[in-house]
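Me: Here is a favour to ask of a fellow structure person. Could you put it straight underneath, so I can go through it closely?

Assistant:
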Amino acid sequence: MFVPRLNRVESTFILLINAWLLSACGNGQVPISEDDLNQTECDAQYQSDCPETYRGKLFTGIATNYAYGKAFYRATQYQDGLEHGYSFSTLNNQLNETAWYKAGKLDGKQISYHPSSTGKPQWVRLYQAGVKTEHWLYDEQGVILSYKRFEGDKEVESISYEKGREWRLYYFVDGEKRQRHKDYYADGLLESESEFIYADYKKLNEKTYYRNGRLKTKFNFDRVTNTGILETYGSNGKRRSEQHYGYNPLNTLHGMQLTFCDENGQVASREHYNMGVEDGEFAKYHCNGQLISKRTYVNGVVTDKQIKIYDENGFAVVIKKLDGKGNIIQESYFDDDLSKWVTYSTTD
């Protein structure tokens, strides 16, 4: 980040002026007042393209100017009648603005300073041959507020800052305008970062974080398949779930859905959806990998005639009978005290 140094800027230009004053031969010339310059007649579009003359010749040297009862002072280098080199101005004995010129056009950094005792930049602009390419804006303490980048007369990137931290970014990718968001915890740690399509605010990717800096969630959208994946993590860094989405037009559960055991990362459940509707096998597992139960859905309806529930050792402990439409009509469980199966009807 560019931070101008006030004393160095002033000292540099004072040395520059002294060099001109002390020059006894060659092209050296005592600084003169801008009021003594005369602009030649020309039809150029910009005034900077019309050279200034002094005593009938194109002016090369340093021109100075006082205004507002000498509260304002400006000094600018000229070459062959055009502003060329360094320029600075002061207001009430404080640095007001600095700039670099080349052949009459701004070229390099132009800096405007806050009218306060801090001496901090208010804004900084970067030019190339008179065309603005970048722009920074600062508060009175020198903390950046915003940044913009230009290509020709088009703004191609824009960043807003919060307490000096990137907050909102607007930019283009292959001609498409996008935006990136960053949000923070009160202590300044990054809480989330995400990227959106500007036109319809469709989320392309996102990451969120715990206060300890570990990843909390991660989302990615695939524009080719029009699907998304969301992964969640615990504060210990272990993966908790993996969810797949489709857009129709909003994001809806679609495809495989997984959860994981915190203790060892084994699959805890596996489900399958078709645009928000249960469709396929649904299974749950113990953390040792042993199946707990599974059922099959077709268009939201359980089609199994029987469902078994198993303990961690693989023994069936509950058996449910269904009518083929997802309704349980009978349930059995193993009674350890009686050492036998107990069956009852759920329709009575």
Q: What stands out?
A: The radius of gyration is 36 Å. Residues 1 and 144 are 9 Å apart (CA to CA).
